Amino acid sequence: MPELRKDPVVGRWVIISTERSRRPTNFTAGSHTKSGGFCPFCPGNEDKTPPEVYAIRPEGGVANGPGWSVRVVPNKFPALQIEGGLDRRGEGLYDRMNGVGAHEVIIESPDHDAELADLPAEHIRDVLLAYRERMLDLNGDRRLRYVLIFKNHGAAAGATLEHTHSQLIATPIIPRVLQEELEGSRRYFELKERCVFCDVVHQETEDGNGRRVVGMTDGFVALEPFAPRFPFETWILPRRHDAAFHSTDDPANEYLELAGLLRDTLRRLNQALDRPPYNFVLHTSPVSDGDLEYFHWHIEIMPHLTNVAGFEMGSGFHINPTPPEDAAQYLRQITVEEAGGGAR
Amino acid sequence: MPELRKDPVVGRWVIISTERSRRPTNFTAGSHTKSGGFCPFCPGNEDKTPPEVYAIRPEGGVANGPGWSVRVVPNKFPALQIEGGLDRRGEGLYDRMNGVGAHEVIIESPDHDAELADLPAEHIRDVLLAYRERMLDLNGDRRLRYVLIFKNHGAAAGATLEHTHSQLIATPIIPRVLQEELEGSRRYFELKERCVFCDVVHQETEDGNGRRVVGMTDGFVALEPFAPRFPFETWILPRRHDAAFHSTDDPANEYLELAGLLRDTLRRLNQALDRPPYNFVLHTSPVSDGDLEYFHWHIEIMPHLTNVAGFEMGSGFHINPTPPEDAAQYLRQITVEEAGGGAR
C-alpha cells in the first residue's frame, strides 16, 4: 500500500509509492520515453489497460473496444490506490496515512503519433470535457480533497509513454502549491475584497498594457506571469472571475474557446522553442469548495528548457534567465502556421 | 541589472537574471557540463576569474596566484549584482526590487579531476571553513538577509563547469523554503517548547530505532528523512541543538568531524547509485538572527535520480518510489572503500 507522509517541519506531504518501488540499481542515468514497440494506449489494445472509467465514442461502440476519440483509464502502476480507508496514524512526531486516491490516464487521441497541440480545437475540447467528467465523478468520493490534472509532454518533462496523454491524481490532501495559492488569494481578498487573479488579468489586459500578453479571446487570456519561475512559463486564465474549472453551464462552447487558445499557445511555444518538452498543471479550487470568491482557476504551462537544479528545489528560489516581457514578445511575433481557433 | 520580482498570489520571489539573458534560440535540449578545454578554475588561470574574495593557501603565496587549496571568487556571470541599492518599488499590484546580492563560487580543490567526496576529510573541512568565512563576511552587508550555500554536482544537477565547486548566493530576501522551515519550526516551538529538528534527531537515534540512520558520529547524524521528496534524499544534522552553521567556537575540529561524515555519506551515495549527479543545500538560520531556539541547521543532499517533472514543481507534490527505510538500509550496507573519518 502506498503511503502519504508529512514532513514534520514544513508540513509537506509526499507520496511514498510502493507500486513503483525502486532499488538503487533501478535508477538509470536519465528517463526515457518508451518509443516504438508495443503501445497500451493504441486502439486495439484496450484490454492491456485497466478497464476504462470514461470515454468519448463519437460513432458509438462498446466500452473497452476501439472507436473512442478520448479514453480515460486507471493508471496501471498507480502512485495511489483507490481501495481502502485512510487509516490516519502517528509514529512519534510523524504523521502518515494510507496512500488512498485515484491515479488515472487521459488518453488524448487514438493516434499514436498525434501531439495535443496538433489536434483540432474540437478534439482538445473533448479532452477538457473528459477532465471535467472525471473531476465531477471523483468529487463523490468523500475521502478525497483534491483532483489534480496535469500533463507531462516529452521524456525530459517526465513522460514515460510516448502516446499523448494527461494524468489525474486525486488525493486526500490538497497539494501544497494549491494550498499556498488558496491561502495567498484568501489573504489578498481579506485585505482588498477583490480576487488577486482578477486584478492580475485587469492589470495585464488594460489599455496600453499587454506587454506580457501572449493571446486573448473574449473569455480567456494567455500571459507570461510577472514573476515566472521558468523561461516561457505561460498561464491561461478566464478573464472573468471563476473559481472552478468544472463550474460552467456551457462546457461545450466555453471549453471550445479555451481549447482554441490552449492550442494556439502550445503551437507558439512549439514554434518558438522547437517543440520543447513541457508540463501543464490545472489549478482549480477543491471541487467540494464550490464557488470561492477569492480563487480563480487557471492553467500553468511550463516548458522544460533548463535543468531545475536541486538548488531551486532545495531553496524554492528560482533564477529565470528570460524576462517575461521578452518571452511574451517572442511568442506574439510567431506566425502560427495554422489558425488556432479564436486566438488573436 | 537583474531584478527580484514577487508573485502576487503566493509571495514567491524569483530572480529575473539579465546577465544570463536567454533568447528562445539559446536553449539547447539539455544542459551540458563543459568538459575538456580551458578551465578558469584551474591553478595558473587565476586571472580568468574575478579577483578572489577568500582563499586558503597552506604554504602561503600571493592572492590570485597559484598555491591555494580552496579559493572563493565572485561568479563571472552573477545572477545578482553586488553594487547598488535595492530600490524597492511597485508596479500596480506587483512588487519588485533590484537584484542586489552576492553570487560567489567556492572552488573546492585545485585538482581539476577531483570530486568533493574523494578529497581527504581535512580538505573538505577547509571547504566548510571557507563557507563560514564568507557567511561571516557577507553578514556585514545590511542589504542582505540570507546567505545560501549549495552545490550542484554533475550536469543533470545543474553544474555548468566540471571543476568541483560550490556556490554561494546572498540575497535581500529569505529564500522561500528556508522561510517555510523557519515558520514551521517556530510554530512547533510555540506549541511544544522544543526544537522540531532536535525531536527528529532524538526519535531517529533513540534505542531500538535507527531504521533511517545512515551514519553517525559523536556530534552529527546522517539520516533519510521520514518524508523525503526524492529517492535517497539524505540530511546531515548536528545531534545537539545548534541554529547556525557558523556559530561554533571550535570550527577546525567541529568541521573536521562534519567533513568526515559528509565525505562518508557522499561516498556511500556514490557507491550505491554509481556516482549520481546530486545537489546539496546548507539550511542555516539567517546570520543576523543569532541563536534561534527553534531552528537547527542541517545539510540536505538530494541525488538527482529521477526527472523532477513540472507536475511536481507545479503542485509541490512529490512521488518518491524509494521508502527512506529501504534507502537507509542500502546505504548502511555499503562498505565504504576507504575509511571515512569517524562515521560508523
UniProtKB/TrEMBL annotation, chains A, B:
Major enzyme class: transferase
Enzyme Commission (EC) number: 2.7.7.12
Cofactor note: Binds 1 zinc ion per subunit.
UniProt-annotated catalytic positions: 165 (tele-ump-histidine intermediate)
Cofactor(s), by name: Zn(2+)
Gene Ontology terms describing biological process: galactose metabolic process
Family matches, as Gene3D superfamilies: HIT-like
Keyword Metal-binding: yes
Domain Galactose-1-phosphate uridyl transferase N-terminal residue range list: 3-175
Residues reported in the UniProt entry to bind Zn(2+): 39, 42, 112, 163
Keyword tags: Carbohydrate metabolism, Metal-binding, Nucleotidyltransferase, Transferase, Zinc
MF-aspect GO terms: UDP-glucose:hexose-1-phosphate uridylyltransferase activity; zinc ion binding
Span of domain Galactose-1-phosphate uridyl transferase C-terminal: 185-321
Family in the record: Belongs to the galactose-1-phosphate uridylyltransferase type 1 family.
Protein name listed in UniProt: Galactose-1-phosphate uridylyltransferase
Organism (species): Eiseniibacteriota bacterium
Lineage: Bacteria, Candidatus Eiseniibacteriota
